């Protein structure tokens, strides 16, 4: 089989890239390790920046998002039983974010792909990338017990943090930057009305909590937990009880509880692989970088990589300009590091690091620095604007069109 772009992974990065390339007449095939249902069963991101909303519109997959997604013009930071409103719209140029789950984005993209009759292999195993430095790379994999080979011009590695694409870049060429945090987030999804109409990020002596949502009838909550905890050892009652203790009192009294639909623990990590391009292979999204979820940046950074790559490949195919290939990594990494820094900063400021020393400071000293940071930034309009600007996302800087 032959295609122009072989895409590894049918998460949001792979599906969105495939959709945008197809709209430009660029042929692509997606190879995914899991089943479609498995991909849709993963509960992840919930907040889309303006740039990602616009990209989904450009891809022609925004109809349901525009109908069902909720525009949020602000969010709250709670600490010391105080609630500080970050008015995104007033503090920026009228920018807002949208609450529309990653699951729904993925479902819309899958549907568009199947309606367009584009090829996706699900449940493929032993996916291997070959000759990525050459003009004729190819991908092999096993499908229903048979070996398959797809010849292509380019490969997009959209296979997440645990995928194979990044490992294809020789270690001598790759530099990896990493910070692993000493706690995780326990997430719970429930068909209960959200406790507040905006997200609330809470810092408490018992650890961090986040009150989020998916719709007016579906809420999503998170608790900071030790990495040694197991989701199955947390009963729903234990979760709700702990959440009430971490929400501001007036909010906790409004909490509606109910049975969980999903409960899982995610570790927190900051990670970047440089460069993001090697020969005819491009890394996209979580395959190249991971952020802790505190700034809601993971999915949005993935979307901005996709925006850049689809512009690069469009230029390659429509204008024969191969020079721009070497710009992909630098363009993406500028934005990635901004997102990494913001997520790291928010994570440091909002979490309880227990007795772990951080950045060379003992735990008590680090906590004093972070409390002061939080008070300083939330206590002035300039500080709140710095938070707001970063939360709504910096402008996309995909390839310029000059
Ligand atoms: P994904 O979504 O991980 O998709 C990668 C796909 O590649 C497949 N795959 C392979 N396919 C073929 N061969 C192989 N060898 C393969 N290995 C893997 C996988 O099955 C999968 O389908 O990466 P992508 O597309 O780059 O999308 C990135 C986003 O998923 C990610 O950034 C966000 O979900 C991160 N994230 C969050 N981001 C936010 O912006 N806001 C959030 O609130 C938020 N919450 C989260 C999150 C990530 C979580 N993880 C990673 C556990 C909550 C969680 C729990
Ligand atoms: C979510 O709703 O899953 C969510 C929202 C904001 C975050 C992280 C997760 O920062």
From TrEMBL:
Keyword list, A-Z: FAD, Flavoprotein, Oxidoreductase
EC number: 1.14.13.2
Keyword Ubl conjugation belongs to the record: no
Xref: InterPro entries: FAD-bd, FAD/NAD-bd_sf, HB_mOase, RIFMO-like
Pfam families the record matches: FAD_binding_3
Transmembrane intervals: none
Annotated FAD-binding domain residues: 2-342
Domain of life: Bacteria
Broadest EC class assigned to this enzyme: oxidoreductase
Record-level Gene Ontology MF annotations: 4-hydroxybenzoate 3-monooxygenase activity
PANTHER family with a match to the protein in the record: P-HYDROXYBENZOATE HYDROXYLASE, TRK SYSTEM POTASSIUM UPTAKE PROTEIN
Protein name: 4-hydroxybenzoate 3-monooxygenase
High-level lineage: Bacteria, Pseudomonadati, Pseudomonadota, Gammaproteobacteria, Oceanospirillales
């Amino acid at each position: 089989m032959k295609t122009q772009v072989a895409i590894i992974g049918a998460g949001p990065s792979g599906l969105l890239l495939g959709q945008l390339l197809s709209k430009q007449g660029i042929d692509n095939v997606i190879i995914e390790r899991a089943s479609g249902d498995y991909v849709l069963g993963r509960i992840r991101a919930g907040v889309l920046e303006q740039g990602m909303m616009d990209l989904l519109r450009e891809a022609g997959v925004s109809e349901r998002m525009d109908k069902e997604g909720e525009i949020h013009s602000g969010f709250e930071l709670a600490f010391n039983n105080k609630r500080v409103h970050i008015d995104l719209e007033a503090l920026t140029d009228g920018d807002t974010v949208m609450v529309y789950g990653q699951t729904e984005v993925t479902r819309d993209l899958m549907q568009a792909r199947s309606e367009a009759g584009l090829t996706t292999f699900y449940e493929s195993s032993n996916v291997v990338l070959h000759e990525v430095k050459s003009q004729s790379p190819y991908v092999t994999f096993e499908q229903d017990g048979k070996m398959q080979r797809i010849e292509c011009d380019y490969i997009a590695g959209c296979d997440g943090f645990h995928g194979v694409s990044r490992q294809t870049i020789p270690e001598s060429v790759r530099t990896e930057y990493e910070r692993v945090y000493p706690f995780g987030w326990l997430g719970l999804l429930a068909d209960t009305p959200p406790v507040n109409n905006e997200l609330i990020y809470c810092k408490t002596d018992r650890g961090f909590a986040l009150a989020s949502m998916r719709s007016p009838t579906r809420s999503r909550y998170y608790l900071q937990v030790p990495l040694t905890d197991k989701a199955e050892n947390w009963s729903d009652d234990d979760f709700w009880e702990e959440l009430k203790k971490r929400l501001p009192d007036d909010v906790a009294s409004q909490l509606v509880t109910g049975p969980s639909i999903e409960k899982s623990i995610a570790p927190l990590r900051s990670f970047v692989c440089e460069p993001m391009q090697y020969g005819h292979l491009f890394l996209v999204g979580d395959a190249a970088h991971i952020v802790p979820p505190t700034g809601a940046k993971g999915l949005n950074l993935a979307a901005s990589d996709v925006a850049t790559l689809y512009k690069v490949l469009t230029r390659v195919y429509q204008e024969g300009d191969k020079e721009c290939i070497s710009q992909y990594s630098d363009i993406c990494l500028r934005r990635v590091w901004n997102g990494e820094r913001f997520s790291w900063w928010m994570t440091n400021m909002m979490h309880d690091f227990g007795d772990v020393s951080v950045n060379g400071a003992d735990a008590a000293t680090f906590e004093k620095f972070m409390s002061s940071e939080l008070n300083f930034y939330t206590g002035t309009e300039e500080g709140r604007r710095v938070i707001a600007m970063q939360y709504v996302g910096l402008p996309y800087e995909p390839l310029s069109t000059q």
